[in-house]
Write a structure and sequence with these properties.
Oligomer: single chain
Strand content: 25-35%
Number of strands: 10
Strand order of the largest sheet: 6-7-8-3-9-10
Helix content: 25-40%
Radius of gyration: 18 Å
CATH architecture of the largest domain: 3-Layer(aba) Sandwich
Length: 245
Amino acid sequence: MTKTIVEVRDLTKVFNGTVAVAGVSFDLYQGEILGLLGPNGAGKTTIIQMLLGLTTPDSGSVRILGLDLKTHREEILQQINFSSAYVAMPQSLTVWENLKVFAQLYGVRDAKAKMTELLRLFEMEEIRDKLTRHLSSGQLTRVCLAKALLNAPKALFLDEPTSSLDPNIADKTRVLLKRVCKQSGLTILYTSHNMKEMEELSDRILFLHLGRIIASGTPQEVIHLFAGQDLEEVFLKIARGKVKA
């Protein structure tokens, strides 16, 4: 039986009277890539923030690696990681210095070798000594992804991880993530507005709308459920209110 890495039950969050997440439940399994799909405001980022303990749910529970997030957050965070295209890195440090700082924070063994390996994997050797403030958005995204893999996490939460990457690097990043999952059993939960990416990368999809899960399954199962040609058509149908969610 596949090991359950993340268990979410009846997760709910309300901001100033507005329901952001409404009774969401799902499981995430070892080695799986699960895509959170939905229009802006559907609750994707709020769910990830609650899984990291950055936002406290109003009700519901989260268990990660068999541990309750409320009582074992520090122990859980040592074994998972997170990356977002919208999170800033220290601007006055070089790429190498940034990775070194995070490697020390994570207590990475043989940090130099791990950092060198990640720079190679993400094709960043030539920018290792470049100040972070001088990086392009795509380069910064790759640094954030490398940072997120430093501690060899058992679960990785990604918020639009390829949004700033050109098509070539985005494709290489997807291939890399799939390879890491296959080789190490890494579990990934991620959000994206790139429907082609969702179809290519996801083992399963949770389609969110107004804070609720309205569909779940493989990309093809979700497409079939809404009688679409592809995920982009399904997304547009729901976002434009052309189907009952």
